[in-house]
Design brief:
Length: about 325
């Protein structure tokens, strides 16, 4: 006689619980898919909004180029366009977290072109002031071996500084070696700065520039106040940069350290052995310079770095690293 099989109540209950869990997960998945389907495509919204604002700015620029703006209103008109470009830059900054590297790079290039157009129009349309900031001479401080040891130096007027010159269409320094270079707040306020072909120099930029372009620097220390828009660094090696800006782009640079305040995401390309830490420069009236720059002091993406040469999403780029806290420089020369 065969034994009667008695149902296992525990086994049935286990199957019921498993099925309930599967049903619950399936429901959550469906709800998530429905939510995602209903949610706006943020990247698409950004591109459409960015394009609309860009077209409006270009239309305003076109009116200036055609001479359809009254002469007496041109300064205010230019100022309004500049503010619109700055607002577009901020919009890119706050949106960069959900944008692709390609979109960020393309948008930054658009803003650079707009900024270049408005700067050229300012040069062409506004009367040159007899005593403008751009006529101020940068300071070049000679350094001898003895002075380097004692950290003392004598000031030399820029007009007699060896191999020092302004970069074309910009304020700055070029072709300088073994010098301490300085520009004050009034000189660089809202100006485009250019530093190029510098070797073993320390550069003090106290104030609020519009943009800064640094190229071909070796063994230099660049200490800069907050730039309203972008800072570009290219072809530099064994340098230290202390900079604040909305966008930072680093090209073809190696063995360099960056202490940064960036409100979007910094971008590196064709660069290796670059290191990052939070911005820690202090000088008199730096708080005022941050206010004028429009940078969000509470937002610093110093360790969110996009490497255009590193496409793997599941591994960190080997081309950059954070500077360990104990290795960071705590204070900078004034």
């Amino acid at each position: 006689m065969m034994d009667k099989v008695v149902p296992d109540g525990n086994a049935n209950m286990k199957e019921i619980l498993i099925q309930r869990d599967l049903d619950r997960k399936a429901k959550i998945k469906n709800l998530k898919e429905e939510k995602e389907a209903a949610a706006p495509d943020h990247a698409k919204v950004f591109e459409e909004t960015f394009e609309d604002h860009t077209k409006q700015i270009l239309e305003n620029i076109k009116l200036l180029e055609l001479g359809n703006v009254e002469q007496k209103t041109i300064p205010d008109y230019l100022d309004k366009i500049s503010k619109n470009i700055q607002n577009l830059n901020r919009y890119l900054s706050v949106s960069s977290s959900f944008l692709t590297n390609y979109t960020v790079g393309k948008s930054m290039k658009t803003i650079e072109d707009l900024d270049g157009k408005i700067k050229q129009l300012e040069t062409d349309l506004l009367p040159k002031k007899k005593f403008g900031f751009k006529t101020r001479k940068p300071k070049v401080i000679e350094k001898t071996d003895k002075e380097l040891e004692t950290k003392k130096s004598d000031e030399v007027d820029a007009s007699v500084g060896k191999k020092m010159s302004y970069a074309s269409k910009s304020l700055g320094f070029s072709d300088v070696k073994d010098k301490i270079l300085k520009l004050d707040r009034e000189s660089i306020s809202k100006q485009d700065l250019e530093l190029k072909n510098l070797d073993n120099c320390t550069v003090h930029l106290h104030g609020n520039p519009s943009t800064t372009h640094i190229s071909n620097a070796t063994r230099c220390t660049i200490l800069s106040g907050p730039a309203s828009t972008s800072v570009f660094v290219e072809n530099c090696q064994e340098c230290v940069f202390v900079i604040a800006c909305q966008q930072l782009r680093i090209h073809s640079t190696t063995k360099s350290k960056f202490y940064i305040h960036v409100t979007s995401r910094a971008i590196i390309e064709d660069s290796t052995n670059v290191e990052f830490a939070p911005y820690n420069l202090t000088y008199e009236e730096i708080t005022k310079d941050f206010e004028v720059s429009g940078l969000n002091v509470s937002q610093n993406n110093w360790n969110l770095i996009d490497d255009f040469n590193w496409l793997a999403s599941d591994a960190a780029s080997p081309n950059w690293r954070e500077i360990k806290e104990e290795e960071r420089i705590k204070s900078w020369p004034l």
